[in-house]
Specification:
- This protein starts with a strand and ends in a 7-residue tail after the last strand.
- Helix 1 (16-27) packs across helix 10 (301-319).
- The longest helix is centred in the middle third of the chain and has 19 residues, at 155-173.
- The strands form four sheets. It has a seven-stranded mixed β-sheet with strand order 3-2-1-4-5-12-13, with helices on both faces.
- The protein contains eleven helices and 15 strands.
- It is an alpha/beta fold and 401 residues long.
- 32% of the residues lie in helices and 21% in strands.
Length: 401
Amino acid sequence: MFNIAVAQSGGPTAAINASLCGVFEAAQKYSEISTVYGALNGIEGILYDRLTDLSQIITTEHDKNLLMTTPSTVLGSCRYKLKDFGEDDSEYKKITETLNKHDIKAFFYIGGNDSMDTVMKLDDYFRENNIDIKVIGIPKTIDNDLPETDHTPGFGSAAKYVATSLQEIIRDSRVYSIPSITIVEIMGREAGWLTASSCVLRANGEPAPHLIYLPECEFSEKKLYHDIEKAQKQYKAVIIAVSEGIDCVRSKSGITDAFGHTYLSGVGKYLENIVRDHFGCKVRSIELNVMQRCGSHIASLTDLEEARRIGGAAVDEAVSRNNTGMMMTFARISNNPYRVGIVPVDVHKSANKARFFPKEWINEEGNNVTIDALNYFLPLIQGEPAIEFQNGIPVHFRLDQ
């Protein structure tokens, strides 16, 4: 008999708790697993021995169902960067001490690019020091920018939220007869996957957003003006989807996180001001900001179910296959019908790396995406989960209740 531990890291999503649920459920299949510990606030929970027995928290089928549809990270998160153990191994010794204290033989980390850095470093340390503890990464990010996987849990729900919000913005913008321009700023520091996903509205015959700008394309104010002028000849209310990371004179906070990422802000507002000055018409910018991360009321059922599956597959990889140092990934088999498999890849291939939106899926003008992008995105946003409501408000699973 042995125990396992799971933690969540990085930014929240609508599906990260579904992966936690998948880990918990899969562990129950194995008689050799005694306890599933949840580490509070990511790797910090292991460092400081803040563990909780998940069987004391998830006690009924109702709990599991509620956890599946609850956004954010029920165990809490962190953005903690482990030092290079070749320079300072004190953190690794504390982590090993905690894991050994609780007889934990497998650790599962749910997160994005930076979280895979933690998985990689821990596995390297354990291997070098002949420590028999398995480490498996479970992907998560709304940015969809993890290499080696077709897509990431959390992305489909965020894309569905973005598309739904844009459709409502479009309805609002067409109320008046005067010309208008609406700029919607969408998350995506280096990769434009989420902004590009707004194209799914075309599947329902909606031509907007009329312009889509991604970090992967060259951007200039002169080109923006030209594109808007062309769009205004056909549409009175022009809708523009823009990634927060496009290459323009934008506002930066000057603040960075533990992994050196700069917090971006103000792209939409900056473009609003220059476009208003140039065109002299009604211009509005809307920043979706953090709302696109935890919009579980409009989550993708496909996303939640896949997140659950990949969490369970991670446990199988460590326990049944005795594997370690892997990140679980989706491999797309077909678009129509939509089918994906789950395969492990060496975490070194994903840690600290980014996957960019394909240049071949961007049109020649650099201001929109192709039908290939639509075909890729559309299966990921399908299905609606059954949401429990109380007093007219969605019910969330919380540790503090």
